[in-house]
Amino acid sequence: MSTLHNFLFNVYPYICLTVFLMGSLARFDRDQYTWKSDSSQMLRAKQLRWGSNLFHAGILFLFFGHAFGLLTPSFIYEPFISPANKQLVAVYAGGVAGVICFIGLTMLLHRRIFDPRIRLTSHRTDLFILIILWVQLVLGLITLPYSLSHSDGTAMLQLSHWAQSIFIFQPNAAEIVNLDFAYKIHLVLGMTIFLLFPFSRLVHVWSGFATVAYLFRSPQLVRSRRLGVTPSVSTDASRKTA
């Protein structure tokens, strides 16, 4: 088990990140026509509208919450909030966002599975990635009671130290060796989603983040051009007529 633990939390993260980055770049370079979300908006648009809005609102909050929560060093926020209180904020805020995301994703998954027309127009990878995201959300909600039981903030600190050590290329799987099993499954499945990212419809997330660049573009100056009247050219026929 120690060998498996070291592989999953010391080596596997770098495999997933490498495939995530290089695979996304390769797909953009070679298969740009597949770089899309394959929307089924024309079929059952009302359920899609509710499900998609709830899912995206929840998943964006969870993504940035996990990113800033795990990768922010403790010395930055400790003057303002203790690790224990930070963990409580993460549990309650993440719990609300998780429930919202879960409802939206369940609606999207329901229409993909139980609507014959949508099921026929869906790729297998579409359904597969939705199921994985649904399971990951369930696992994330399961970890909430475990986080409340560690009210001193130790679980959050261990997860943060592990994530930060991965990003500074000093992996230390021992940081999370004593965590509950639910946390470890949640981490492994989360890394697996990054591994599958370039081969699924999730690649359109890159395009969503890229649109932020439009906020910083210099304004385009558009001038109207007045069309001049071209002089008429007389012909021999017109002269004869005159």
From TrEMBL:
It is a multi-pass membrane protein. InterPro entries: Heme-iron_electron_transfer, NarG-like_domain, NarG-like_sf, Nitrate_red_gam. It comes from the Bacteria. The keyword Oxidoreductase applies. This is Respiratory nitrate reductase subunit gamma. The chain crosses the membrane at residues 12-29, 50-69, 89-108, 128-148, 187-216. Residues 6-225 form the NarG-like domain. The keyword Transmembrane applies. It comes from Orrella daihaiensis. It is an enzyme of class 1 (oxidoreductase). Its EC number is 1.7.99.4. Pfam families: Nitrate_red_gam (PF02665). One of its GO terms (molecular function) is oxidoreductase activity. It is found in: Cell membrane. Keywords: Cell membrane, Electron transport, Heme, Iron, Membrane, Metal-binding, Nitrate assimilation, Oxidoreductase, Transmembrane, Transmembrane helix, Transport.
